[in-house]
Amino acid sequence: MNISSGKARWFSRTRSSSPSRRIYERLAASVTTDALFLVDPNNPTGFSLLSHGRKGFEEVVRYCVDHDKLFIVDLCFAAFALADPRFGRFDLYELLDTSGVRYIALEDTGKTWPLQDAKCALLTCSRDLYEDVYNIHTSVLLDVSPFILNFLARYVEDSIEDGMASVRDVITRNRETAQKALAGSLLEHIEPAVNVSVAWFRIQDGTVRATDLQRHLAQHEVYVLPGTYFFWNEPERGESYVRLALARDPGEFLASVTRLREAVDGYGA
């Protein structure tokens, strides 16, 4: 099947009047760059286009094809969406390859299996970008030893066998621990669409800045990430949020959020 006929057939299946059509319209009205960069599921909110089923991604890809945009998609948290029964599974790479879109997809085992430096980053791209990306890709892989690759492979195999339960259960348990420990405090938990391995909290006092709170917490040997890192063009908007990492030993995590609550309650006292 040649690319042009593939595009025609794909578009005939995707044009509709569904609510997700607004995705295309809003992109057409607001994007001024040559590339569209999407993190899905989002870090740290857990938002995902999968809330629209397959249609959400189809509309983004259709926009990129129509407007000749390079689609760069960060899928580092994708395993959590695939393991979540609330979301439908579909082959995103099949969608990308049959649509004719120019794309680069990024994945990272470290977001799913937190094994310190024992991780592997993956780059996948459309055929037209292959030669440009090949040398970068091989350079990345050369930094990963065969031992690490085999080590990671066993983790992947174990997660396939238990349906990601060993990973998902720890994340769920730690999220519940954090919510319980911080209930009624300065920090309000924001429920994610996808149960990713981080928790996003809103600072309920508008006079408290995330960067100031982070410095205070560091004095109590508790580390959180201020939300400024997640608002690329408007870091100031992130001063109302902090992020916690959830992929930790549950016993150690309980001790950490207990100290976090004490330090938060003592802020400004």
Blueprint (SSEs and pairs):
Blueprint: H1 3-14, H2 21-30, E1 35-39, H3 54-66, E2 70-74, H4 78-82, H5 92-99, E3 103-108, E4 121-125, H6 130-142, H7 146-161, H8 165-182, E5 187-190, E6 198-203, H9 210-218, E7 225-226, E8 241-245, H10 250-265
Parallel strand pairs: 1-2, 2-3
Antiparallel strand pairs: 3-4, 5-6, 6-8, 7-8
Helix pairs in contact: 2-3, 3-5, 8-10
Shape: globular
Biggest β-sheet description: 4 strands, mixed
SS elements, strand count: 8
Strand content: 5-15%
Instruction: Give the topology string: H per helix, E per strand.
Output: HHEHEHHEEHHHEEHEEH
The assigned structural class equals alpha/beta
- Rounded mean pLDDT is 88
The percentage helix is 40-55%
The residue ranges in which pLDDT falls below 50 over 5 or more consecutive positions are 1-17
- Total helical elements: 10
> Mind telling me the C-alpha Rg?
21 Å
How far apart lie the N and C ends? 68 Å
Give a structural overview.
The protein is 45% helix and 14% strand. It is built from 10 helices and 8 strands. The strands form 2 sheets. A 4-stranded mixed β-sheet has the order 1-2-3-4. A 4-stranded antiparallel β-sheet has the order 5-6-8-7, with helices on one face. Mean pLDDT is 88; it is low at 1-17.
